Amino acid sequence: MEQSFALVAQAGVQWHSPASASRVAGITSAHHHQQEPHPAAMSAEVETSEGVDESEKKNSGALEKENQMRMADLSELLKEGTKEAHDRAENTQFVKDFLKGNIKKELFKLATTALYFTYSALEEEMERNKDHPAFAPLYFPMELHRKEALTKDMEYFFGENWEEQVQCPKAAKKYVERIHYIGQNEPELLVAHAYTRYMGDLSGGQVLKKVAQRALKLPSTGEGTQFYLFENVDNAQQFKQLYRARMNALDLNMKTKERIVEEANKAFEYNMQIFNELDQAGSTLARETLEDGFPVHDGKGDMRKCPFYAGEQDKGALEGSSCPFRTAMAVLRKPSLQFILAAGMALAAGLLAWYYM
Q: For tag attachment on the chain, is the N or C end more exposed, with fewer CB atoms within 10 Å?
């Protein structure tokens, strides 16, 4: 996302108004005839001059502010107004881990699920408001809509009956509810959510696609990452420029633009809540699952999650115990012990073969 901000304004302030010009002319004329002004007249002139100057300053300031408000592009206001929220979103643990390639397939599936429900809601409301003057110029279903692509990704990860297996995550549900509320009650703010999602997808999303394919060993032919593929956008940079130009051409007053920036910040917050939820899910997966899929226990919480104690619960053996699976798996990761174990197994196999000869 671009970090610079340029606010174009033309003050159009005249240095000499007709009133000030007449005063200058009067003073010049008095000086030319060497006439000393009466003290009372001088006092009145000064007071009148100060009053006119103050009035002109107020009028000039109001005109300058009005011009600034009129000339402020929505795209520029959004870039500057959401910069802090954008930086916070980029620095969530989930995003940082993702960019490093530290992501498991189960977590990526959860992220794809959240995206599916989010875009389903967003594109439903965009369809509802495709003729609304505050959104119609930004309606690009062929170029931008992601629901169809996400449906393919969901089928790839969960199978043909994927709709029966998934439900909207808690954080995504809040985001979805907000999108529906905006679409049905304040459609002039819908641009905030479209801008936040699609502009990011056309930018950083392409990086995430490559990371996911490499980290999760996904097919290079695009299965599982259809979401990131914009088949009808030939040049992402040019399309983003077109989209911003359309945004700037919307007939909106400054108050509405400010509300759109505020709503865009809310959109970033909702996305961060989803990232944090995914991060918590990732921590749970790492804590409860080894690379080979065996569940383990970390010594905290419910000991019944440990398979070793599943059959010991009726014996009162849980108190003060530790999980032998965790210890055993940690020991077996050491190369020297792996060699000893392999040698022992080979010896045992040899003895058994000899015994049955």
A: C
